[in-house]
Amino acid sequence: MNIGNIISEKRKKLGLSQEKLGALLGVSNQAVSKWENGTTAPDIYLLPQIAATLKITLNELFGIEDQKKVSQKTTADTYPEAAFDDLHLSFYQASRCRFSPGGKTDDEQLKYQREYLKKGDMLGCISNTHGAVVIRDEFAFIDTSFKDGDIGRFCTAECGSILKTLSDPSVRKIVCYLYTEGFKRNKASHTKFYLSEIMESCGLPEYTVVGAICALSSADIVTSDDEDDEEKPVSCQVSFSKMLYVAEIFRLASMIFDGDSWLVVRDSSMIKDYSFESCADQK
Fold first, then answer.
1. Residues 108-156: tens digit of each pLDDT
2. How far apart are CA 166 and CA 179, in angstroms?
3. Which phi and psi (to 5°) does residue 121 adopt?
4. How far is residue 217's CA from residue 226's CA, in Å, rounded to a whole number?
5. Domain extents for the chain?
6. What is the rounded CA–CA span in Å between residue 97 and residue 75?
7. Are the beta carbons of 109 and 102 closer than 8 angstroms?
8. What is the pTM of this model?
9. Which class in CATH covers the domain with range 156-255?
10. Are 153 and 159 in contact (CB under 8 A)?
11. Tell me: domain 3-67, CATH 1.10.260.40, correct?
């Protein structure tokens, strides 16, 4: 992207006309127009002022990636929060979504948006051709396959079997124990649990626990261990990578039940009723 394209993109994002930007820089709107269509380039002495007016760095004005940000390292324990912050910032920079009143500066707007996220609101965008993004406090997802009419995946027998298994209250109680207790013990990829401890901790009879473990094993959520030739499992191995997906199923179900509000920017190809200009329009 050349400097003219960047000026045009950032100007529009700030809601400035070519005439307004020219007035702020002390040049004509024709000059700004020539920069943006590539006919001429800004005077070198104007570049710092242009960057400051557009609220970007000189590197961004020239399309140069911030190497410090690219090379920054983080740990597994701090990465989820860092990734969430980056996604929220990216959504703020790329969308028209602004709260009112939210403050005039980017920092004020981001802080204001984060406070609303903590109250249960969500940010996001849904395209009918390219996917969807959802952002709420401590949770976000990106689904690049979501699109209008894409429901085939919901109709499989496997999907129905897993949802039926997880709908059992006893199964959910056991899953909750396996998930929370497993993380207390360690962060190994697999952790072993014995039926006796599950029975005692969950306050459930043996036949209920055995049935739940067999159902979870059939859904490929846990791996049950048999004792010699008996069919009854005595323990199970829990995969936390799979258990994480189960936890998110529950989280999403809770969000649906609670009727969380959406502050969503729809793709411009969607019908007008669903194309919001700003978050403020939806309050």
1. 888 888 888 888 788 888 776 777 888 888 889 888 876 655 566 677 7
2. 14
3. -70, 160
4. 12
5. 3-67, 73-150+261-282, 156-255
6. 31
7. yes
8. 0.64
9. mainly alpha
10. yes
11. yes
